[in-house]
Amino acid sequence: MGTVTSKDGTTIGFSRVGDGPSVVLVDAACCFRGSGPMPAVAEALTGYTAFTYDRRGRGESGDLPPYAISREVEDLAAVVEAAGGSTFVYGFSSGAVLALHAAAAGVPITALALLEPPLSFEEHSGPDVRDEINALVAAGRRGDAMIHFQVACGVPEEFTAGMRQSPGWPALEALAHTTVYDLTITATPPDLASIEVPTLVLDSRSSDERLRGWADGVAERLPNARRRTLDGEWHGIAPDVLAPVLTDHFSHSQA
After folding, report:
1. Which domain holds residue 158?
2. Matching InterPro entries, A to Z (predicted)?
3. pTM for this model (two decimals)
4. Residue of higher predicted confidence among 166 and 226
5. Do 155 and 91 share a structural domain?
6. What is the dihedral of CA 228, 230, 236, 238, to 10 degrees?
């Protein structure tokens, strides 16, 4: 475990496991090293040095307002630098979109792998969920803000029904304000046509049509992308299924 300092002075906590070429793993919304899939993915990536980190405002990482996508890109760039200066990157959900923003900004990424990046290329209409979440957080209703985010993102009711009673709820509730960061990242598509690194875009066979369509849309707009569907659950793939596919992609990208 260690820390890096981002360009704006924010401390970013990270962990490292394994031995071999470096891979930086970028978490989805509501996840950090203490709660989420990335530590297990890191352990499953045999033959690689896997770096997991807490995105700003989460876990052991700091935060500094006002929020900007460029600051999260700088956070990721600082971790990439600590990982050797040019690395493979795997991103999940909003973390996949953040990885795309970083690649478009020129962060030295050798190859990308993305699981279900939630980028819609249709014009948004209706109220801004970010304003609604900010209002709930300001009113001290962090739990309601978190549930509102989950519902707005289309998370099935079977996942949200017992969320408040789960052991991890206090940690999840504490992250409510960071969901606005994720919504900001996914509301602003990066210049995909400028990203020339080899990119693997993945989805789960059990995910819904909307998630699959978003993955298709990203893959179609990237100049050097491959598209695969793997066996998994809704918006998730088990580490033992995912890791061999990632290692295959990264090893071929390195050749």
Report:
1. 129-178
2. AB_hydrolase_1, AB_hydrolase_fold
3. 0.95
4. 226
5. no
6. -130
